[in-house]
Design goal:
The chain is of the alpha/beta class. It is 37% helix and 18% strand. It has one domain: NAD(P)-binding Rossmann-like Domain (Rossmann fold, 3-Layer(aba) Sandwich), CATH 3.40.50.
């Protein structure tokens, strides 16, 4: 897969990076990535993956841009208020990197999740509800597609990589009855940038084969105290999804 002169210049810092180089950049160009949720986490993740040269990005969401989104959803501008996030996001990414193909897709449901995941090499989930996270995780396990999952609330965020076992359902077997949302408890805007960028970093590592991804591990970041820790996630031998 050849690069144009403009692409060589655009990706110069990757091409000289030992862990990426030409072969890694070619893998990025050939990759098809699904981003579920074009919100606080999906925004920075999409921007960095488009900038990195991921060949095809699918944005899955059915929400419209609201003024309250702009505190953390850096994919959008004030002039995008009222537009579909997928349409506004596709325009922004095309302006950032014309070599990337961006597809707009509806939000994930139980009826369409398998068809949305199909055909992608990697899925990033930045949604803010457990029902969708579990749907996406189950579909990724069934399709054999790696999943990068992120979540934020207040001042704390987390990111993990799931591929086969353990799956996200091993970490969260059921929807917590007292689950909090950013609407209810708030979130500092820059935290979305930190965790969304970490998700993009894990995606680049997975696609290029560089370094050690957070597979089977969860990185927890405390933005208020400037601290982080990584914990291992055990595979549940009774998991109804990945233990079958």
């Amino acid at each position: 897969m050849a690069f144009s002169e403009g692409e060589v210049d655009r990706y110069a810092r990757h091409l000289v990076l030992r862990e990426v180089g030409g072969p890694g950049q070619q893998r990025l160009k050939a990759a098809k990535v699904l981003i579920v949720g074009a919100g606080g986490l999906g925004s920075p993740a999409a921007l960095y993956l488009a900038a990195a040269g991921v060949g095809a990005i699918t944005l899955s969401d059915d929400d419209v841009v609201s003024l309250s989104n702009l505190q953390r959803q850096v994919l959008f501008a004030t002039t995008d208020v009222g537009r579909l996030k997928t349409e506004a996001g596709a325009d922004r990414l095309a302006g950032l990197n014309p070599h990337v193909t961006v597809h707009a897709a509806p939000a994930v449901t139980a009826a369409n999740v398998e068809s949305l995941v199909a055909g992608h090499d990697l899925v990033l989930d930045g949604t803010d509800n457990f029902e969708t996270r579990l749907l996406v995780s189950d579909a990724c396990v069934a399709a054999g597609v790696p999943l990068v999952s992120g979540a934020i609330g207040r001042w704390t965020g987390q990111v993990g990589v799931f591929h086969a076992a353990p799956c996200y359902r091993c970490l969260v077997p059921d929807v917590p009855p007292d689950a909090e949302t950013c609407v209810a408890v708030g979130v500092v805007g820059a935290l979305a940038g930190v965790i969304g960028s970490m998700m993009a970093l894990e995606a680049v590592k997975l696609i290029t084969g560089a370094g050690a991804a957070l597979s089977g591990r969860l990185l927890i970041y405390d933005g208020l105290n400037g601290d982080s820790r990584t914990v291992r996630i055990g595979a549940d031998p009774a998991c109804p999804v990945c233990a079958r």
